[in-house]
From TrEMBL:
GO terms for molecular function: molybdenum cofactor sulfurtransferase activity. InterPro entries: Aminotrans_V_dom, PyrdxlP-dep_Trfase, PyrdxlP-dep_Trfase_major. It comes from the Eukaryota. GO terms for biological process: molybdopterin cofactor metabolic process. It comes from Aromia moschata. Residues 12-275 form the Aminotransferase class V domain. This is Aminotransferase class V domain-containing protein.
Length: 320
């Protein structure tokens, strides 16, 4: 891909790491920040209310982009996929004997999530593919009441950051039906799914009306190139249990969180502290898109360019 600015000629292939930002995008952000005053959204002055409204609009845009709504998911802004996974690790309630299961090909940050779980299972890709093709779970029936008091979590990427391999979204329902109990040290009735979509959503459309994982982690710079240091956790928040102190706005959180936060307000979703307001505001523009009309167009262009590349092109890039 050639950078948009005519003065810069460079072959760029690292779209799994981050896409290229648009020159018009940066100009639009600068224009917006020059014409408006943004402030701490937790305050009560006019600029703060403007900021709060702008952030709420961004949340609606994010949910609409993934074809869902605030009745299904809440948006928790983070510094990226790693921070979103950390929140899941800190807050997911495994209950008495829940298990963290994860695919061997996973985001490196998933390895850190292991620190919060007592029971761990790493699942080989071929094993996951074989189990997911099974339509029944008769070989892992549950016969104890204890299984109702544990929650297990399966974490996997929709697209591998390294190889580009895409994993089926149909796994979600199979996991919920207990297909992994045959591999888990403790069987449970309650299985939940966390999707790492950081790489996938940069060139693919994620439709959360068709497939509904409990958690989705994303990094916006992989989608838009700018701003960096901003991502989100899309969550059905009733699955989380508070193990951290929050600041700012919380709504739709379970009762333990609301009781521990004296500053809760009637916002759409949780904000874990206050960070980088301007990155959030910038997303108002980036979600509109400047280079392509849709994610489908991005995918089509990426496929076209990839198919045009020759072995000599790859060698030339690495020699540079």
């Amino acid at each position: 891909m050639i950078f948009e600015q005519e003065k810069i000629k460079e072959c760029y292939l690292d779209h799994a790491g981050s896409t290229l930002y648009s020159e018009k995008q940066i100009q639009g952000v600068f224009s917006d920040l020059s014409k408006n005053i943004y402030a701490n959204p937790h305050a009560k002055n006019l600029a703060s209310r403007l900021t709060e409204d702008a952030i709420d609009i961004i949340r609606y845009q994010i949910l609409d982009h993934f074809n869902t709504n605030i009745e299904e998911y809440s948006v928790v802004f983070t510094s990226g996929t790693t921070a979103a996974l950390k929140i899941i690790g800190e807050c997911f309630n495994y209950g008495d004997d829940g298990t963290l299961a994860y695919l061997e090909n996973n985001h490196t940050s998933v390895l850190g999530v292991r620190n919060y779980a007592k029971n761990l299972v790493e699942i080989k890709t071929e094993v996951a593919l074989r189990l997911s093709s099974t339509s029944t779970v008769t070989d892992c029936e549950l016969d104890t009441e204890e299984s109702y008091f544990s929650n297990s979590l399966f974490v996997y990427p929709t697209q591998c950051n390294f190889s580009g391999t895409k994993y089926p979204l149909t796994w979600i329902e199979n996991i919920r039906n207990g297909i992994l109990n045959s591999l888990s040290p403790k069987k449970t009735k309650n299985w939940y799914v966390s999707l790492d979509c950081a790489s996938y959503v940069s060139t693919n459309k994620l439709d959360l009306s068709k497939h509904k994982p409990d958690f989705v982690t994303i990094s916006f710079y992989k989608m838009f190139g700018y701003p960096t240091g901003l991502g989100a956790l899309l969550s059905t928040l009733q699955r989380l249990v508070a193990k951290f102190e929050t600041t700012g706005s919380v709504n739709n959180l379970p009762t333990p969180v609301r009781q521990r936060n004296a500053r809760s307000t009637e916002n759409i979703a949780a904000v874990r502290g206050l960070f980088d307001i301007f990155n959030k505001i910038s997303n108002t523009l980036t979600l509109k898109g400047t280079r392509f009309e849709s994610v489908e167009a991005v995918k089509a262009k990426a496929t076209e360019v990839l198919n045009q590349l020759t072995e000599a092109d790859f060698q030339h890039c690495f020699r540079q």
